[in-house]
Amino acid sequence: MEAGEDFGPWLARQLKLADMTQTELAQAVDVTRAAVSAWITGRATPRPEAIERIARALKTDLVTVHTRTTDTRAGLPVGWYHRPGHVDGGRELGNAAAFAFDADVSVLARETCQNSLDERIVANGQPVRVRYTLHELTGEHLARFREAIHWDDLYPHYEVVREQKQKVGRVVDAGLRDMYERDRLVLLRVDDYNAAGLTGDDYDDGRFAAVVRRQLDSHKSGGSAGGSYGLGKATLWATSRLGLVLINSTLSEPHEGRTERRLVGRLDLPWRRVDGEVCAGPAWWGRPDPEMPGARVARSWWADEATVESLHLVRESGDPGTSFLIVGAHDVASLVGETAVPDEDEGDDDDSIQRMHHRLVRALGKNFWAAMTGGEDRLPLLEASVRTLRNGAVVVPEERVDPMLAQPSRTRALRAFLEGATVEQLTEAGQVAAVTVPLGLPRRGRGRSSLGEHRAVLLVTDAEDADGRPNRVVTMRGNRMTVRDAAVWGLPSSVTPFQAVLLAGTAAGPDAPFATEAEEFLRAAEPPEHNKWGQTEELALAYSSSAYRRINGLTRETNAAIKTLVVRPKKRTGQGGGRLAPKLIIGSGKRKRRLSAANMPVLEELDAQILANGAWQVVGEVRIPQGGHEWRLAPVAKFAVRSGPRPSIEWAEVVGVDNCQVAGGMLHFSDGARSATFRGVTDPTTHAVRTSLSGLVVELRTGDGDLRA
């Protein structure tokens, strides 16, 4: 059982919450004011008969006074506090940080699991355990939950917001219709265990304030942390159609003398006027803070077990960590291009909890297979699972994500590295080759001097994955989250399919030179999406404007090392022809398939680097559905801009690399191919912006102007 708070500080806070003075308590308990003062300062403790009278005065029970693990219900009640409108009339029509991400459970899994990895308690050597629970409420279960969160106090705010002609208004309207027309509400809970929890004061610097009170505050525990922008937490609110997240945290270090059931809620809505009161946007659910003027600000509170249960926030153990409950969860990305869930009754429902379950499992396996991999006496960094309920009953049993199922080849390679079972050259099937790849590290500051050479570890092994995407290299650093997954281009057609893994920074092992410095350098080179290493503002400011070239060098060295290791020829089939099919002949007498968006090829991967003359060189991988070979598509290069039309860039060269050829500027795909690769080099004389200061977007367009990017 959790140890209770010292009696003095606990009693002082209860008096503030009850708006009761020491003199008033002394009169109610029939003691002197000096006796109450001695209790509060810790110079004395009350006798059993006095404790009974204290409980009656505070309108609570004896257990609460004896255990002191929660606050009494006397005085100021838990409720919603809405931030008042700005005195200068300014308006925010939504949380800008939330717009940085799609309402996509795959993105949510990536960002939340990364945050849990960053907050893992390292000292005990145990993995951080993350569980995702989808829970659909209907009928009486939904009604009881709405009562528990004081829904009647929130509904007027939602009614106003749903009428606003902004994106947030449309999302809220969809959430309310889902609840009232379909009698349905989806909760998505993210629990982590063996993590730090939301420690610190409600307002001062600390984990709690960084997550609950602030935007763009990245409060991380170590230098190998994945996040550095403070944006990832916004995915929690972005995944809620109602902009509502409830939180229950078990702390790794006490706050106010306790650790368990620290509760708070946060609501993110745009500016609104409700019943004549102007609200700036966010709102918090908690205990009114008696230290604030008029007790108008809500702070976290220590809840009892019954309250936690009514909010579906019961944690499975007393291990430190945090539970985030996303109210009204949805998954926009599941509406497009996803394979139907095997359950026929739910297959047509794009918001089905079964579909969301499978997407979560797939995303966790794709991004965190390496963190879930251990070897010999080395435990994995992470364990993850997903379960799905409806009104408390199991719909899909808890499914632990298995890295060997998600990424068998790469998991086998990493395990061999952790167990010291790698070889220098691939001579037999199933072997894992390991070599080091140099990364020249610059010194911090504006100079161009070098700090030293880090040796990243490259692993290469045979591809046995069922996803049909061999000959790729994934890169990662200390927390072992996949940062980049890219095709290795320029390979001969006889190469046996392989998978490669590049471990950089502290992921390269304790003996890797300059591992900590490489970790800091690569962290600065990651954008908010954490999906590549390249030029960022942080990198240019911390090091130099040309520091990104060190990463380009790492990429070149990695690709060259892979080509050296992949020496076994691919077995030839009796059909011949290699990987490059003959030129596609149009109108050969065969009846053509009707073309539609359903069988239109999609640009799935894009790798790019900047050449010495300032041109972009890109390698694009195109996914070709059945019948897609009949399309004729032109790759179009444009500068990435945050608003307005994107300026186009001319190509200096476009060539087919694998399963496609270029004729008249159009890509012609080989019959029967499921993927194709092309390479393009832009004409730097048509660049409106310097390449090093810009981003690139590539689209596939038909001759009629339709596109699939």
Structural summary, described in words:
By secondary structure, the chain is α+β, with helices and mostly antiparallel strands. It is 25% helix and 26% strand. The strands form four sheets. Strands 1, 2, 3, 4, 5, 6, 7, 8, 9, 10, 11 and 12 form a twelve-stranded mixed beta sheet that branches. Strands 13-14-17-15-16 form a five-stranded mixed beta sheet. Strands 20, 21, 23, 24 and 26 form a five-stranded antiparallel beta sheet that branches. A hairpin with a 2-residue loop joins strand 6 and strand 7. The longest helix is centred in the last third of the chain and has 18 residues. The protein starts with 6 loop residues before the first helix and ends in an 8-residue tail after the last strand.
Helix and strand topology:
Elements: H1 7-17, H2 22-29, H3 33-41, H4 48-57, H5 62-67, E1 79-84, H6 105-118, E2 128-137, H7 139-148, H8 151-162, H9 167-181, E3 185-193, H10 207-213, H11 234-238, E4 240-250, E5 262-268, E6 272-274, E7 277-288, E8 298-299, E9 301-302, H12 305-310, E10 321-329, H13 353-368, E11 382-390, E12 393-400, H14 403-406, H15 408-418, E13 432-442, E14 450-462, E15 472-476, E16 484-487, E17 498-503, H16 515-524, H17 537-542, H18 548-565, E18 602-610, E19 616-623, E20 632-640, E21 648-649, E22 651-658, E23 660-663, E24 666-669, E25 675-682, E26 695-701
Parallel strand pairs: 2-11, 15-17
Antiparallel strand pairs: 1-7, 2-3, 3-10, 4-5, 4-10, 5-7, 5-9, 6-7, 7-8, 11-12, 13-14, 14-17, 15-16, 18-19, 19-25, 20-21, 20-24, 20-26, 22-25, 23-24
Helix pairs in contact: 1-3, 2-3, 6-13, 8-9
